[in-house]
Amino acid sequence: MLSFADLRNFPNTDERFSRCLECGKSLVLLPDDRRGGVCFDCLTLSIVGPKPCPDCGAMIPAEDRTIGCSNCRWYPPPD
Question: What is the residue-averaged pLDDT of the chain?
């Protein structure tokens, strides 16, 4: 339960309601919303976790998978 009121204002009330870009559920968008137009259910599915390096087993963050492992310098083969 919130112990304070949400005082954020909508510049244009027509932009407050939307649909999820992934599944189409109805959404209420808040000012400064960082979900990128997806609902919380689809947001958790869109976050990619780290994977282990095939050579040394160190965890490679999703954003670094294209550049390889910083621990052993393994590089993914080109497609």
Answer: 77
**Amino acid in position 26:** S
* Residue numbers of the chain with a pLDDT score lower than 70: 1-15, 45-47, 79
Buried b (16+ CB within 10 A) or exposed e, 3-23: eeeeeeeeeeeeeeeeebeee
Tokens 């204002």 -> residue = 9
- Residue 26's CB: how many other CB atoms inside 10 A? 9
CA distance 15 to 28: 9
Q: Which residues contact 77 (CB under 8 A, 6 or more apart)?
A: none
Q: Hey, what are 36's tokens?
A: 């990128």
At 15 the three-state DSSP class reads helix
pTM above 0.90, yes or no: no
